[in-house]
Amino acid sequence: MKNMERDRHIDPEDELNNFGVVESPIDLSVQEEYQDLSDSISIDNVNYEEVLTEADRLFVQGTPIEAKKRILILLAHLGTMESSKILERYLKVSEGTLKDWTILSLKECRMFLESVLLKEEGGFISTGLGGKDNKLRYYFIVSKREGRPLTRSERETLEEGFKGINDEYGAEIEEINVGTNYAMIRILVPMDVAVGEVIEEGIRRSNRMGEILFFDYYVTNVKKPTKEEISKYLSDIRRKGE
After folding, report:
1. What are the sequence ranges of the domains in the chain?
2. How many other CB atoms are found less than 10 A from the CB of residue 43?
3. CA 11: distance to chain centroid?
4. What's the rounded Cα separation, in Å, for the pair 158 and 192?
5. Tens digit of each residue's pLDDT (9 = 90 or more) over 5-32
6. Beta strands 19-21 and 123-126: pairing type?
7. Residue 41 in contact with residue 112, Cβ under 8 Å?
8. CATH fold of the domain at 133-241
9. Which of the four, 57, 100, 128, 190, has the lowest number of CB atoms within 10 Å?
10. In terms of pLDDT, which residue wins out, 23 or 96?
11. How many CA atoms lie within 13 A of 140 on its CB side?
12. Helix (H, G, I), strand (E, B) or coil at 148
């Protein structure tokens, strides 16, 4: 999880609503590269007029990618309505990695702009899976005890159990995929709520009518688990239960 701030010194008691969530899933390696370059550029050395002149190069096909990355960060650091509008316009035509860089730049630019308008520091949080509003997106996997297939009634109990946690925690289940003996769930969880607490409550609810699920689970906010990662989790759970 990357936390992008203007000066990278945020008071731990700052309210979470001073942070925005980058909704688009962006590879962590891209975020790290963006953060490193952003940190290397001093805001004090940014010349407003020069940056706006340089911004035209974003729309020139022959401009090197590395030059475009630097221009994107310079526009973000300006933190003005004009630089925000340029980034919005480039976002419509950017592709691939540069599109991800533009998303991060636009979020950082708006954060700087809001800091000036509201006269308080802010930041933004970006993860591999993105988020929505003040919620971060996760995938987690739970599995049936003893590796046996889930029956139809057990599947229904599992789905009802996890859907029941939405209101209590302000979470939002986006998708439930039930396999033979496991379920993979995509969920949005508020930043001020521990995702483990939400998952464990869902397991408890699912187990009220009988011990259906293991209490162990797999959770990530980096990327959607692959078939190999699911298989490894199920294999590890089986060994642990033996």
Report:
1. 2-128, 133-241
2. 14
3. 22
4. 25
5. 333 333 333 333 433 444 566 777 888 8
6. parallel
7. no
8. Alpha-Beta Plaits (3.30.70)
9. 57
10. 96
11. 22
12. coil
Q: Phi and psi dihedrals of 159, rounded to 5?
A: -65, -40
Contact 26, 94 (CB under 8 A): no
Q: Which residues make Cβ contacts (< 8 Å) with residue 77, sequence separation at least 6?
A: 38, 41, 43, 46, 108, 109, 112
Question: In this predicted model, what pLDDT tens digit does every residue of 124-170 receive, in sequence order?
Answer: 444 566 777 778 888 899 988 876 788 888 888 888 888 888 888 88
Tell me which residue of 216, 167, 170, 175 sits closest to 191, measured CA to CA.
170
